[in-house]
Design a protein that fits this description.
The chain has a six-stranded antiparallel β-barrel with strand order 1-2-3-6-5-4. It is globular, with a radius of gyration of 14 Å. The longest helix has 15 residues, at 2-16. It has one helix spanning 2-16; strands at 18-24, 27-42, 50-59, 69-71, 76-85, 89-96. It contains one helix and six strands, in the order αββββββ.
C-alpha cells in the first residue's frame, strides 16, 4: 500500500508541482518539485482576524529544517515550521525572504 501512495504522490507533484530549489546556507541542498499555495488562517485568540500564509508541499523523504531557503524562478522564501506530515508528503509554512 505504501508503494501505491508513494507513486500517487509522485504523480501529483509531477502534475501540479513546480520546480523548486532548496538551499541550506549558501549551498544547494536539492532540486525537486513542490506545490506552493496560499491559505487564510486565524491570527491570535479571535478567529475574526485572518492572515494569508504561504505553504509548500514536498515529499517526506526530504530532510528539511527551519531556516532552509526555498527558491522558484521568481520568488524566494524561508521555511518557518512544519505544519503537517502524513508520511508521504510534508507541508511547511513559509515566509518571504
Amino acid at each position: 500500500m505504501q508503494d501505491e501512495l508513494s507513486e500517487l504522490n509522485r504523480q501529483v507533484l509531477a502534475t501540479f508541482g513546480q520546480p523548486v530549489m532548496v538551499f541550506r546556507g549558501e549551498s544547494l541542498l536539492t532540486e525537486t518539485r513542490g506545490i506552493i499555495s496560499r491559505e487564510l488562517v486565524p491570527v491570535g485568540q479571535f478567529d475574526s482576524v485572518l492572515q494569508t500564509v504561504t505553504v509548500i508541499s514536498l515529499p517526506a523523504d526530504l530532510k528539511l529544517q527551519r531556516g532552509d531557503d526555498i527558491q522558484t524562478a521568481d520568488q524566494q522564501w524561508i521555511i518557518d515550521r512544519k505544519l503537517k506530515d502524513d508520511g508521504q508528503m510534508v507541508w511547511w509554512r513559509l515566509h518571504e525572504a
